[in-house]
Amino acid sequence: MTEQARFPGVFIHESSYVDDPCEIGEGTKIWHFSHILGRVKIGTGCNFGQNVVVGPDVTIGNKCKVQNNVSIYAGVTLEDGVFCGPSCVFTNVNNPRAEIERKSEYRKTVVKRGATIGANATIVCGHDLGEYCFIAAGAVVSKDVAPYALMAGVPAKRIGWMSKAGARLGEDLVCPIEGTQYREIAPGVLEEV
Asked: What is the pLDDT of residues 107-138, one digit of tens each?
């Protein structure tokens, strides 16, 4: 059976592999040399670049973009509209050893709706990344991230706020792209007005 027959409305490059069972939503594209392992659920309208590995047991929402050389391991969930920049890294065990199997110790990582993870960023397992947060290129996230937080550095620290549209917010907390107003309702907690 061809990939087109298995997954109608989905583009899968001939150099990529998709294991069974797997669900892939219409309009999704999987490019060169990628591997989608079994028991993966992928939503509609997603785009996976070259050399991407997903799964097993990973859930990815609708309209996510996963750039080249990203591996999304068991324990990771991407909600709708998540962007994973080139070569960003997820982990799923805190203390791995080659000679000790720790599959029962996988820690969950949830990346909430609209979050952006920059190129070469590392997301240490067991943490949630809030809605529309923005992880700068090369950052190392080792704790939970608040919605709309702009995180940078090693270890990553909040250096500002980002709007849903992806613009850095100034002191007035107004998005310079859309004009949307935000407010800080508690120290380190932002919401859209």
From this structure: 999 999 999 999 999 999 999 999 999 999 99
Do residues 13 and 34 make contact, with C-beta atoms less than 8 angstroms apart? yes
Provide the residue type at 168 as one letter: R
Residues 6+ apart with CB under 8 A from 58: 37, 40, 41, 72, 73, 74, 76, 77, 78
Q: CA gyration radius for the chain?
A: 17
- CA 75, 76, 80: angle at the middle one, nearest 5? 145
**Could you tell me which of 59, 85, 90 has the C-alpha nearest to residue 73?**
90
Pair 91, 74: CB distance under 8 Å: no
